[in-house]
Inverse folding.
């Protein structure tokens, strides 16, 4: 059946114009719109980029599965990398648990609770940075809602996208969630201290991504120097 | 469920242009490389459209190559 109007055509490609006549909706007129659905988000993302540039703030968008260790990695990064001040926007559906942990680690932080929302968008970030006001020259880490699907679509105004997953999650994640991995600038493979205990083929995992895969353990500190080195190489940390 | 946010934006775009008319049909281009589920988008669209000029409108999803996500046009009465 035609999905455009429910007529009997077997044509399932939907991008077609009907030349046959219908009688059930005679009085309609077509309004041309041609508007990008993500335009408003992009506008806010660009505004955020300008806001960051004006204050010499470099923003990264940290994404990954719930429980992969995003906050643990941040806690360690805040404690160990004193090259530049770090400020954090924490995105979660509910609670300020992560913001409390970041605060305890010594960084300024604002929690964004998205309620039903499964991702941060550029508008939420715009309000978040108004409250957070990261200091000039700082690194702003936007910790997105734990989710390997929805955040991929939303530009927040970040300089780089970091995707963090852990070895307990299976080495086929890049194949299962291609959108998220395709937009990443670097991938952190966390919990490598657990590799002896789980079935996870690092080579298979890395074979399906085009960007550097850094093996780290946010818990033990193994490999995190590669993460700091990457931040420097990418000119995200310049001090 | 980012479809909810997208559907809400589609409804806003259409309602802003309805100019007092009732929206009958919305044609939305969705690129094959965009991680969007058409069924989920339709479901969310129906919910978001309630109480707006687009209430009851049909959402036609036009699959396109690439990463477009744009409202092409709409039919109003």
């Amino acid at each position: 059946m035609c999905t455009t109007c429910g007529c009997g055509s077997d044509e399932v490609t939907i991008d077609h114009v009907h030349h046959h006549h219908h009688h059930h909706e005679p009085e309609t007129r077509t309004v041309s719109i041609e508007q990008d659905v993500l335009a408003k988000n992009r506008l806010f993302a660009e505004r955020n980029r300008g806001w960051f540039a004006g204050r010499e703030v470099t923003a990264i968008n940290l994404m990954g599965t719930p429980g992969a260790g995003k906050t643990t990695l941040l806690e360690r990064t805040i404690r160990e990398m004193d090259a530049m001040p770090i400020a954090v926007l924490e995105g979660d559906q509910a609670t300020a648990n992560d913001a409390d942990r970041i605060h305890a680690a010594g960084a300024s932080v604002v929690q964004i609770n998205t309620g039903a929302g499964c991702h941060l968008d550029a508008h939420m970030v715009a309000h978040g940075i108004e409250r957070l006001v990261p200091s000039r020259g700082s690194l702003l880490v936007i910790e997105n809602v734990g989710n390997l699907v929805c955040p991929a679509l939303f530009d927040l105004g970040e300089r780089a996208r970091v995707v963090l997953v852990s070895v307990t999650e299976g080495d086929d994640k890049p194949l299962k969630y291609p959108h998220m991995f395709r937009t990443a600038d670097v991938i952190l493979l966390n919990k490598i201290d657990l590799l002896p205990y789980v079935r996870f083929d690092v080579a298979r995992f890395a074979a399906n991504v085009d960007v550097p895969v850094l093996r780290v353990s946010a818990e033990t500190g193994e490999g995190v120097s590669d993460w700091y080195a990457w931040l420097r190489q990418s000119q995200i940390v310049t001090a | 469920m980012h479809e909810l946010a997208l559907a809400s934006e589609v409804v806003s775009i259409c309602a802003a242009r309805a100019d007092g008319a009732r929206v009958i049909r919305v044609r939305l281009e969705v690129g094959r490389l965009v991680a969007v589920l058409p069924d989920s988008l339709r479901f969310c669209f129906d919910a978001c459209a309630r109480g707006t000029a687009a209430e009851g409108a049909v959402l036609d999803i036009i699959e396109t190559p690439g990463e477009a996500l744009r409202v092409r046009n709409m039919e109003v009465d």
User: Anything to note?
Assistant: Residues 1-18 of chain A have pLDDT under 50 and may be disordered.
